[in-house]
């Protein structure tokens, strides 16, 4: 089994978003569980490694192993760790479904198995959660965070934003992914064998409202709509045209210029405790 096609791809506009992420802004649910400096952590779908390196800096006597299917992205992650002077981290090409092929990854070998914005891009998120559970030691945790596109919102109203919203969700579903998975992470954990009493569910948000925040968020989505692999997926699906995507890109640029503009990304989170 493989992780399947990645809707966004690894265009520069995508990596700008990923590279902004830190433990503080992307793993608030995990921070209370990082008090032991000797933890062993697995970061699944690590991307360019900014969260990974931040995690490693918080467990200086521990270690972090991170995996991602993209060779190019793993190279970027290794360079980021080197630039930050973080040595207790190892990046490997691979995915959660083929972890047995990766040296140094053993069942029950990690205190924390972490995945950020990963399950929404998988055709079989339940199997991924089951594999993460296998990799967590007794007494350890699986920590997962994914957004819920159905709950995203913006101001002021704009027909083009609704068009983006509908097209993105339809395209994700066309490749059998769930863009709204953030609302049901606890349910997936239950299906993977975690009792409901062992699952802590929470929600947090990214908000983009200042001129700088709008410029960054709207700018990367304008570019992503016309230049990333997402564009290819839209066209292949037949759900949208190049003209649709150009219109959507222009909408994002208009939203960037709105002094009262506001965009919220809602994220579901779970901490699943492995008691068995």
Can you put this structure into words, describing what you see?
This protein has 276 residues and is of the alpha/beta class. The protein has one domain: 3-Layer(aba) Sandwich (Rossmann fold). The chain is built from 10 helices and 8 strands. Strands 1, 2, 3, 4, 5, 6, 7 and 8 form an 8-stranded mixed sheet that branches. Strand 2 (63-68), helix 4 (71-84) and strand 3 (89-93) form a beta-alpha-beta unit. The longest helix has 17 residues, at 211-227.
Descriptive labels:
globular, Methyltransferase UbiE, alpha/beta, methyltransferase, eight-stranded mixed beta sheet, Rossmann fold, Methyltranfer_dom
Secondary structure topology:
Layout (H helix, E strand, L loop, with lengths): L11 H8 L3 H4 L13 E5 L5 H9 L4 E6 L2 H14 L4 E5 L16 E7 L8 H11 E12 L5 E3 L3 H16 L10 H7 L7 E10 L2 H17 L1 H9 L4 H15 L5 E12 L3
Parallel strand pairs: 1-2, 1-4, 2-3, 4-5
Antiparallel strand pairs: 5-8, 6-8, 7-8
Concise account of the structure shown:
With 276 residues, the protein is of the alpha/beta class. Helices cover 40% and strands 22% of the residues. The chain has one domain (12-273): Vaccinia Virus protein VP39 (Rossmann fold, 3-Layer(aba) Sandwich), CATH 3.40.50.150.
Order of helices and strands: HHEHEHEEHEEHHEHHHE
**Tally of DSSP helical segments:** 10
Mean pLDDT: 93
The CATH level-2 architecture is identified as: 3-Layer(aba) Sandwich
| Helix-strand makeup class | alpha/beta
- What is the CATH level 1 assignment? Alpha Beta
User: What is the CATH superfamily?
Assistant: Vaccinia Virus protein VP39
Rg from alpha-carbon coordinates? 18 Å
Quote the distance from N terminus to C terminus: 26 Å
Percent in strands: 15-25%
The low-confidence runs, each spanning 5 or more residues with pLDDT under 50, are none
Helix content: 25-40%
Number of domains: 1
**What characteristic shape results from the CA principal axes?**
globular
């Amino acid at each position: 089994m493989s992780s399947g096609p990645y809707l966004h791809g690894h265009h520069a506009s995508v990596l700008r978003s990923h590279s902004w992420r830190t433990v503080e802004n992307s793993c608030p649910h995990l921070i209370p569980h990082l008090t032991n400096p000797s933890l062993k952590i697995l970061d699944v779908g690590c991307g360019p490694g900014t969260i990974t390196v931040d995690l490693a800096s918080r467990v200086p006597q521990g270690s972090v192993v991170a995996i991602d299917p993209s060779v190019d992205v793993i190279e970027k992650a290794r360079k980021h760790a080197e630039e930050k002077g973080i040595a207790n981290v190892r990046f490997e090409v691979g995915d959660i479904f083929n972890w047995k092929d990766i040296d140094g990854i053993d069942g029950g070998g990690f205190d924390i198995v972490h995945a950020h914005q990963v399950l929404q891009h998988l055709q079989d998120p339940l199997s991924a959660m089951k594999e993460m559970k296998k990799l967590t030691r007794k007494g350890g945790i699986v920590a997962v965070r994914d957004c819920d596109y159905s709950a995203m919102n913006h101001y002021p109203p704009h027909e083009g934003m609704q068009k983006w919203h509908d097209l993105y969700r339809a395209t994700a579903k066309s490749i059998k992914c769930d863009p709204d998975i953030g609302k049901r992470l606890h349910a997936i954990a239950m299906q993977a064998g975690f009792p409901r009493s062992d699952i802590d569910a929470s929600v947090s948000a990214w908000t983009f409202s200042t001129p700088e925040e709008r410029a960054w968020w709207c700018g990367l989505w304008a570019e992503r709509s016309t230049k990333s692999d997402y564009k290819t997926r839209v066209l292949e699906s037949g759900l949208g045209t190049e003209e649709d995507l150009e219109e959507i890109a222009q909408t994002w640029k208009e939203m960037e210029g709105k002094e009262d503009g506001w965009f919220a990304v809602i994220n579901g989170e779970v901490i699943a405790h492995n008691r068995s």
